Amino acid sequence: MAGIWLDVLDEIARTCREHGRGDLLQAVRQKRAQLLDPTLRVLVIGEPNQGKSQLVNAIVNAPVCPVGDGRTTVLPTVVQHAEVAAAAVVQVPPPTPGRSPGTALPGTVERTPVPVEQIPAGVAGSYGRRPGGGPAYVEIGLPRALLGAGLVLVDTPGADEIGTAAGVASVAALNRADAVLLVSDSTRELSVAELNVLLHVTRAHPNVLVVQTKIDLVPDWRAVAERNQRHLAEAGVPAALIPVSAALRLRAAAADDRDLNAESGFPSLVARLHRDLAGKADVLARATVGLAARTVVEQLAAPLRAELESQQAEEQSGPMSRLHAAQREVEELRRCSVRWQNTLNDEMADLLSDIEYDLRERTRQILREVDDAFDTADPLVAWDTFQEWLSRNLTEAAEANHEWLAQRCDFVARRVAGHFARYGYDVLPPWSMTVPEDLAGRTPEIEQPNVDRFTVSQKVITGMKGSYGGLLMFGLAMTLAGMPMINPVSIGAGALFGGKSIRDESKQLLRRRQATAKTAIQRHVDDYFVRVVKDCRDTARQVQRMLRDHFAALTEELQEAIVQSLRTAKQAADTDAAVRDQRQREIKLKMTRLAALYDQAQQLTGARPAAAPLEPRA
């Protein structure tokens, strides 16, 4: 009869061995030995003062566990069958490396017989226990038919922190139990801590029972039982609830009162224990194997699923992501190459236009000052002073223009280099542009233009021409008055007209000289402008070619490095993808086998609950 579930359990053990989980393999082996043992080990747990010890006494109908008078259960108490009543304190050696706590090698445990009157002291841990030793428990044997059928009861210490596995039972008693009775009295409803313990226990034990004690002390114990059943259903705890009264059971046993015994609720509890004992080799074993399979499969599948998820994360951040990053870098470098060339061409075109406009404005300002100066000045008198001023101003204009050219060229270089900022900041070319020191020596001197001078002979002739008209006009007029043509009045008029002619001619000659000087200066400034603009254009073109060659070489260097990185990333991605795909196939195959093992174990119970965690995720 045990063949089916035993084969499944052995398959679970082989699976644990294949996955290298020695801890799980040891637990499965212990579970196998436990299920093959015909005895039914029932673990009685609960918070203090809930009636656990009295419950055990009522089941076996003997005061084996001390109760009342402030007696506290410190050591677990194992009540089993014996031909003659006896008790002993059993202590195992301290755990050593490689051996789980609560286990001992055969022949290494220490057994100290305990007299009947010393059983309470033994249970309290003050008798028969060697200080410094390992875990201990009290073993009591009784000649009882129920115990002789294979029932073993384990009374555990009350757990104040009942929510932890250590507080539930010591010496790994919970893992070795076939059934678990959680004891809670009728004075209150199930607490949150007790519900948490039930949730914890039902994950590892298919046979869990809630025993509601002290119904003889609480009149409305049925309402408490209904609320407890509702709490169990809401919490999803698959545990039955049996209300009992140990006091009524013991009183009925003493008086041999069957009705009082039935009122105590113990017949239902004892019948349940008999049914569990009879079905351990089949029903209980199948359910236990199903739960064991779920626990083992979940623990084996968790690292496999985590590895799959980590591989998916590595796919986003590993060699494949580096390959995608390298491909993006290649595309970005191509766009960067187009952008920096467009920036260089546009900035240099703007630079040439701005430099020419700047020099034109500076020379126009000089010409305006020249026009203002020669509106009043005589080139014959002020030419030397003006020549020095003009040379100085043209030199200053050229120097300022060249300095601005140098600043703009540096600005252009930095604008272009800004496109390479993501590849490093040290991408500016090693160059420097300064204003030429010999600009003043390169400025040509303007020659004084040929202008007409007003000589003495020209003045005499001009004066004579002007005086002749005045003398004749006034002489003829005086003859009408009977005076001679040449007289003091006509002579004075002639002298006046001659002086005026000399002054008018002098002013005309001055204006011609000023106009000639302005024209000569305009031509000189234009020639100088053309020469300086030509130098600036040549310099700007040289800078443009230098920047173009520098950043073209930098682009080629970056492209070569990125392409090499792309090749390396592609090789690594291909290798990683092959290894990852192979590993993913292995993991999915293992998870498929785990799912099949879980299905096989669940078929033992005739039902397969939802088991999404067992299925491998994509």
Quickly give the structural class.
alpha/beta
Identify low-pLDDT runs: 161-171, 608-618
Rg over C-alpha atoms, rounded to the nearest angstrom: 59 Å
- Which sequence of SSEs, written as H and E, runs from N to C? HHEHEEEHEHEHEHEHEHHHHHHHHH
- The 3D shape can be described as rod-shaped
Question: How many β-strand stretches?
Answer: 9
Distance between the termini: 39 Å
Strand content: 5-15%
In short:
The protein has 618 residues and is of the alpha/beta class.
Kindly describe this structure.
This protein has helices at residues 3-18, 22-36, 52-60, 119-123, 145-148, 165-168, 192-202, 221-235, 246-255, 258-264, 266-278, 280-317, 319-373, 379-417, 439-442, 456-479, 488-602; strands spanning 40-46, 77-81, 86-91, 110-113, 136-142, 151-155, 179-185, 208-213, 240-243. By secondary structure, the chain is of the alpha/beta class. It has a nine-stranded mixed beta sheet with strand order 4-3-5-2-6-1-7-8-9, with helices on both faces.
SSE layout and pairing:
Blueprint: H1 3-18, H2 22-36, E1 40-46, H3 52-60, E2 77-81, E3 86-91, E4 110-113, H4 119-123, E5 136-142, H5 145-148, E6 151-155, H6 165-168, E7 179-185, H7 192-202, E8 208-213, H8 221-235, E9 240-243, H9 246-255, H10 258-264, H11 266-278, H12 280-317, H13 319-373, H14 379-417, H15 439-442, H16 456-479, H17 488-602
Parallel strand pairs: 1-6, 1-7, 2-5, 7-8, 8-9
Antiparallel strand pairs: 2-6, 3-4, 3-5
Helix pairs in contact: 1-2, 1-12, 1-17, 2-12, 3-9, 9-10, 11-12, 12-13, 12-17, 13-14, 13-17, 14-17, 16-17
